[in-house]
């Protein structure tokens, strides 16, 4: 699992479970030659039925053994291999290339052999193998990846009868307290099941780069990912595996854990990428080999509170302040003005002196960055988005043409 720190009162370590320090290292051996690059295929395909309509069971909750019996055959172990070039120690000696193997998880989404996993599980891999529940191992190729949501789709060439697709459920219907189970390969242990509840839900969308807020699930290029927090135990090797609801539907892809900086294992805080994001991204990858996301181009965002509005005599007690506009983006071309003065209220930072966004596409954003981000995520690059703003005490509307996320 890849680790990083987050800027909150106590430094906490978040760990990924995949290749770049992220899965479970199986060992390092000398490589005799170049294994080549991971193959990327682009194709036109119908969106799998599991991505279009979740399969329900008449609303009847399943027991954990029932969920496991149905879902475990569709969960796979992903082994990715990366070749590290030898190092020139001195003019007379160079170390041998090293082959590093790491483990992650994944799950089948259709009868065509498509498998969803985390991008970080297969990042930099020169070869990928998938192990099925019948102990059959086969090579996999990369259909496409999306760094911004930490997702990847693999493909294996096996008989459809050997595949057990898992249905993707509706993550928008998930509620805090819902029971969930996770199935994966922690520490290389084959198809382990753990259970827990949904601890929190983060509907933060995909609109712009992370700001002052403490987003629990960030991509490697620093974009927030809609997340489900769970206390179901997930560890090294679980990344890419499914988080499943009581109906047997996948509602998330397990991606990161919080360790509190005290260990390398589970402490009851894990994060999964919401299934609605998985559906959107996987459908794009299956159609074109890649996923694209709309991008507005503002940053350092803070939600107006009644206290901030009162202290600094703002024209509204809700809306979004921002301290950065990226050059050349839709926000810049629409003439949005960033704040020029930074203040701190109740420990949070706000940028004053610029525009205040109060609605986007006709929808109020309240004081939640997530609402704006979700509106942007529902659009495509090139779409025009109307923004209602306050500039000083003057209310006005500007139109931004959304770009493509860098």
Descriptive account of the structure:
The chain has 406 residues and is mostly beta strands. It folds into two domains: 1-40 and 62-291, Thrombin, subunit H (Beta Barrel); 294-404, PDZ domain (Pdz3 Domain), CATH 2.30.42.10. The chain is 12% helix and 38% strand. It is built from seven helices and 27 strands. A six-stranded antiparallel β-barrel has the order 12-13-14-17-16-15. The longest helix has 14 residues, at 275-288. It is globular, with a radius of gyration of 22 Å. Mean pLDDT is 81; it is low at 1-47, 53-57 and 205-213.
Keywords:
single chain, 406 residues, mainly beta, Thrombin, subunit H, Pdz3 Domain, 2 domains, six-stranded antiparallel β-barrel, six-stranded antiparallel beta barrel, 7 helices, disordered N terminus
Query: How is the CATH topology of the largest domain named?
Result: Thrombin, subunit H
Strand order of the largest sheet: 12-13-14-17-16-15
Number of strands: 27
Estimate the helix proportion, in percent.
Answer: 10-25%
Would you identify the CATH architecture of the largest domain?
Beta Barrel
Radius of gyration: 22 Å
Low-confidence stretches: 1-47, 53-57, 205-213
Structure class: mainly beta
Mean residue pLDDT: 81
Short description:
Helices cover 12% and strands 38% of the residues. It has helices spanning 49-52, 64-71, 119-122, 275-288, 306-311, 330-333, 369-377; strands at 3-6, 12-16, 25-30, 75-84, 88-90, 93-94, 98-108, 114-118, 127-131, 137-146, 151-156, 179-184, 192-202, 227-230, 242-244, 250-258, 270-274, 294-295, 298-303, 320-325, 341-345, 348-352, 356-360, 363-364, 384-391, 394-401, 403-404.
């Amino acid at each position: 699992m890849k680790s990083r720190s987050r800027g909150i009162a106590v430094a906490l370590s978040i760990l990924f479970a995949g290749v770049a320090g992220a899965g479970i290292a199986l060992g390092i051996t000398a490589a005799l030659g170049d294994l080549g690059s991971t193959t990327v295929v682009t194709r036109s395909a119908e969106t799998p039925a599991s991505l279009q309509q979740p399969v329900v069971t008449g609303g009847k909750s399943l027991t954990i053994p029932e969920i496991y019996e149905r879902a475990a055959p569709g969960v796979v172990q992903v082994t990715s291999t990366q070749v590290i070039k030898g190092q020139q120690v001195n003019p007379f000696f160079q170390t041998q290339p090293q082959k590093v193997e790491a483990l992650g998880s994944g799950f089948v989404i259709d009868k065509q052999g498509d498998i969803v996993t985390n991008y970080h599980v297969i990042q930099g891999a020169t070869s990928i193998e998938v192990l099925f529940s019948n102990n059959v191992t086969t090579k996999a190729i990369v259909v496409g990846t999306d760094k911004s949501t930490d997702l990847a789709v693999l493909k294996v060439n096996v008989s459809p009868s050997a595949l057990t697709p898992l249905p993707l459920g509706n993550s928008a219907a998930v509620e805090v307290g819902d029971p969930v189970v996770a199935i994966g390969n922690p520490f290389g242990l084959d198809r382990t099941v753990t259970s827990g509840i949904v601890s929190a839900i983060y509907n933060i969308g995909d609109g712009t780069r992370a700001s002052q807020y403490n987003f629990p699930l960030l991509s490697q290029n620093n974009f927030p990912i809609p997340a489900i927090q769970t206390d179901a135990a997930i560890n090294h090797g679980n990344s890419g595996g499914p988080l499943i609801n009581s109906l047997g539907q996948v509602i998330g892809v397990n991606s990161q854990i919080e360790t509190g900086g005290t260990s390398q294992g589970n402490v009851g805080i894990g994060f999964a990428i919401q299934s609605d994001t998985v559906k959107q991204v996987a459908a794009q990858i299956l159609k074109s080999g890649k996923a694209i996301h709309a991008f507005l181009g503002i940053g350092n965002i803070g939600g107006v509170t009644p206290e901030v509005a009162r202290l600094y005599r703002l024209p509204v007690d809700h809306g979004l302040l921002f301290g950065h506009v990226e050059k050349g983006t839709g926000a810049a071309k629409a003439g949005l003005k960033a704040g020029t003065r930074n203040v701190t209220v109740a420990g949070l930072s706000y940028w004053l002196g610029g525009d205040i966004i109060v609605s986007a596409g006709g929808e109020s954003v309240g004081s939640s960055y997530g609402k704006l981000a979700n509106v942007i995520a529902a659009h495509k690059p090139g779409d025009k988005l109307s923004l209602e703003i306050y500039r000083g005490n003057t209310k006005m509307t500007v139109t931004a043409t959304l770009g493509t996320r860098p």
